[in-house]
Amino acid sequence: MIKTANPKLTYQQVRKELKKYASAKRKKTNEWFFKIGKGEYGEGDQFMGVRVPDARKVAKKFIDLKFIELEKFLQSKIHEERFTALLILVEKFKKADKENRRKIYKFYLKNKKQVNNWDLVDLSAHHIVGKYLLENPKEKKILNKFVSSKSMWDRRIAIIASWAFIRNNNITETLRLSKKLLSDKEDLMHKAVGWMLREAWKREDKKVEEFLIKNYNKLPRTTLRYTIERMEESKRKRFLKGEFDK
Question: The whole model's pTM is what?
Answer without folding.
Answer: 0.93
